[in-house]
Amino acid sequence: MSFSAPVKDMLFAMEHLANIEQVAQIPGFEDAGLETAQAVLEECAKLCEGVIEPLNIPGDTDPSSLKDGVVTTTPGFKEAFAQFAEGGWQGLQHPVDFGGQGLPKTIGAACLEMLNSANLSFALCPLLTDGAIEALLTAGSDELKAVYLEKLISGQWTGTMNLTEPQAGSDLALVRTKAEPQPDGSYKIFGTKIFITYGEHDMAENIVHLVLARVAGAPEGVKGISLFVVPKFLVNSDGSLGERNDAYCVSIEHKMGIKASPTAVLQFGDHGGAIGYLVGEENRGLEYMFIMMNAARYGVGVQGIAVAERAYQRAVQYARERVQSRPVDGSVPGAASIIHHPDVRRMLMTMRAFTEGCRAMASTAAAAYDAAHHHPDAAVRQANATFYEFMVPLVKGYSTEMSLEVTSLGVQVHGGMGFIEETGAAQYYRDAKILTIYEGTTAIQANDLVGRKTARDGGQSARAIAEQIARTEADLQATATPAALSMARHLQTAREAFLQAVDFVAGKAKASPNAVYAGSVPYLLLTGNLVAGWQMGRALLVAQDKLAAGEEVAFMQAKITTAQFYAEHILTRVPGLAHTVCTGGDSACALPLEAF
Ligand SMILES: Cc1cc2nc3c(=O)[nH]c(=O)nc-3n(C[C@H](O)[C@H](O)[C@H](O)COP(=O)(O)OP(=O)(O)OC[C@H]3O[C@@H](n4cnc5c(N)ncnc54)[C@H](O)[C@@H]3O)c2cc1C
After folding, report:
1. pLDDT at position 282, please?
2. Which of ligand 1's atoms lies nearest the C-alpha of 443?
3. How far is the CA of 354 from the centre of ligand 1 (A)?
4. 378-398 tens-digit pLDDT
5. What is the pLDDT of residue 52?
6. How many domains does the chain have?
7. Which residue out of 150, 309, 439, 473 is catalytically annotated?
8. Mean pLDDT computed over 264-286
9. Domain check: are 126 and 183 in the same one?
10. Residue to mutate (ligand 1; options 288, 437, 449; most atoms within 8 A of CB)
11. pLDDT tens across 125-183, in order?
């Protein structure tokens, strides 16, 4: 089935929820208004639909393979990546100074979504490269920037993120890879990294590994970790490729999903030491890596939205075609296509509402990122940074968890055929599962939301968001339509439940950590649910105005209906989750360890 990028919904979110025209008032983004966004999205859609999507199923059935240390990607990937690079897509939101296009994240995020809808495995390579670029831009020396940034931004080289080791997954304090200082200022790196996405491949001429390692004598734990650039090929002073570095792929994993994306075990330093270059200062590696991880975490959240959109489109098509059973309302005399059955409609609406809600949340967060990084007023930058920081675990944690529910519903809509690989529905479900694991599991996102984003400021940022939601409720009530009143009522109930959960989390995190952290994932799910629902409430308000003005009638009616569905079927989960957060901790931890 062909994929059609949801350009209209993306532009709606960008224009009315993320306020792209306001973003375009930030110096440097003057040319990045709605018109530019539309042109960029339409161009990107052509590439994604026409070139990258047709490689999605082949990637699943004929994944990357390793032979004699060489990783060969699925036929067609290399050529498609060349086209992606030639089009300048890797540099979309990176600085013009290094050859990028300097567009805001608000636009970049929408392109990232369609790229991932088209082909999650393919899109991972640019996503990791984005993270490497961000880290170098923030912490790299001028020399490192000069050698690596242009080539990464042009897509001539790609980037990787090397955190995980066999004994160090969620807990990076356990990283053991060693870095030995050399007289010329470089380091020799020794160690094993596992699960490295696109750690080896044939799509670009060089691979720039960003590697966490410990310099001898560094403090224990996370305070003793440094970040290094370790290129696959060393770079000569004129920028040409030099000797092969001592960083080799020794195996790639056989996986449940995202099969085309090579997940490598990399061995550093088995033949005398891999040459690495320090990024920033020694022992500040984790801080820099968090820059990469924040970019990548947001990106993985967008992957969740992307695969959900894809699953939804496929499910709608199947539901229109598959004929089975007489509708309960007798609207068709005999068997009808399954889209006539109320439960199939409920499933499709759930898929649609989740996807649109999370897209709206991610788009709003992207605009906050742009203001946080580029707005001329420091106070505006700070306020947006606080908001964005709060949103990152929600975009990552909630959008990816919802993608599991959506892709599972996608299989369910297909009935038995969903379980059969040919329909493609199963691939989305398998592909989606990794999203709640890499770049920090959902529990790690929830720990971040509870600890750094809620308890640390005594719940202040969380309550500030609740105040904004209350203002949307008032606006909805003022319009007094049935859909707006329903949304206002459900938002209010959900917001009040959220505030109870915030009081509990902020008040008890220190005194009763087990009780609070046992409810951390439910707290993340309820907060993400509420924030996405709030965006649907804002969308409903805009859609009502546009409908009254006779603009895009069918689209606006559908937006209102989808928002009302979100309120009545999804926001309603929030009070139950809040109850779990506030009262469920004891039972989660009551069973003695030996009873498991
Ligand atoms: C396909 C794939 C691609 C990957 N790509 C990369 C990559 O490019 N670069 C890279 O460095 N890594 C990569 N990873 C590694 C990935 O980031 C880790 O697998 C992930 O962070 C989880 O670590 P772990 O597997 O060691 O699980 P563990 O840390 O062992 O976690 C196991 C379980 O314990 C829970 N847990 C652990 N600690 C806590 C805690 N403090 N609180 C609550 N629960 C906790 C987890 O939530 C999880 O449910 C990739 C992994 C895969 C499978």
Report:
1. 97
2. 47
3. 25
4. 999 999 999 999 999 999 999
5. 98
6. 3
7. 439
8. 97
9. no
10. 437
11. 999 999 999 999 999 999 999 999 999 999 999 999 999 999 999 999 999 999 999 99
237-249 pLDDT, tens digit per residue, is 999 999 999 999 9
Atom of ligand 1 nearest to the CA of 440: 21
Based on the domain organization, do 132 and 242 belong to the same domain?
no
Give tens-digit pLDDT for 131-147. Answer: 999 999 999 999 999 99
Instruction: State how far the Cα of 207 lies from the Cα of 198, in Å rounded to an integer.
Output: 9
* pLDDT score for 1: 59
- Residue 2's pLDDT is 83
Instruction: Write the CATH number for 126.
Output: 1.10.540.10
Number of H helices, E strands in the chain: 21, 12
Residues 160 and 102 in one domain: no
- For the CA of 169, the nearest atom of ligand 1: 26
Of 87, 104, 139, the position where a domain reaches its end is 139
* β 274-279/187-197 pair status: antiparallel
Q: Which CATH number goes with the domain that contains 169?
A: 2.40.110.20
For residues 163 and 172, what is the distance between their CA atoms, to the nearest angstrom? 7
Q: Are residues 557 and 525 in the same domain?
A: yes
Query: Of the residues 238, 265, 285, which one is the last residue of a structural domain?
Result: 285
Residue 341: inside a domain: no
Contacts of 147 (CB under 8 A, 6+ apart): 235, 239
**344 alpha carbon to ligand 1 midpoint, in Å?**
35
CA angle 71, 73, 78 (to 5 degrees): 120
325 domain residue, yes or no: no
Calculate how far, in angstroms, residue 477's C-alpha sits from the geometric centre of ligand 1: 44
Let me know whether 98 and 46 are in one domain: yes
Asked if pLDDT for residue 69 goes beyond 90, the answer is no
- Respond yes or no: is residue 439 known to be catalytic: yes
Measured from the Cα of 441, ligand 1's closest atom is 47
| Rounded mean pLDDT, 184-206 | 98
Q: Are residues 19 and 103 in the same domain?
A: yes
At residue 295 the predicted structure's pLDDT band, cuts being 50, 70 and 90, is confident
| CA 439 to ligand 1 center in whole angstroms | 7
| Nearest CA, atom 24, ligand 1 | 169
From CA 266, how far away is CA 197, in angstroms rounded? 10
Question: Which of 124, 170, 266 is the pocket-test mutation for ligand 1 (most atoms within 8 Å of CB)?
Answer: 170
The alpha carbon of residue 238 and the mean position of all alpha carbons in its chain are separated, in whole angstroms, by 37
pLDDT of 294 above 90? no
Among candidates 518, 302, 494, which has minimal Cα distance to 403? 302
Same domain, yes or no, for 127 and 188?
Answer: no
Instruction: Specify the long-range contacts of residues 215-221, CB closer than 8 Å, at least 24 apart.
Output: 215/178, 215/179, 215/180, 215/181, 215/187, 215/282, 215/283, 216/178, 216/179, 216/180, 216/181, 218/282, 218/283, 219/283, 220/173, 221/173
Asked if residue 290 belongs to a domain, the reply is no
Whether 131 and 205 map to the same domain: the answer is no
- Say how far apart CA 272 and CA 3 lie, in whole Å: 49
CA of 76 to the centre of ligand 1 (A): 30
Q: Would strands 187-197 and 263-268 be described as parallel, antiparallel, or unpaired? A: antiparallel
The pLDDT, as a whole number, for residue 439 is 95
Task: Give the Å distance between the CA of 491 and the centre of ligand 1.
Answer: 34
Pocket residues: Cβ below 6 A from ligand 1: 161-164, 169-170, 195-197, 255, 263, 434, 437-441, 443-444, 447
In a domain, 595, yes or no: no
Atom of ligand 1 nearest to the CA of 193: 11
Domain of 252, in residue numbers: 153-285
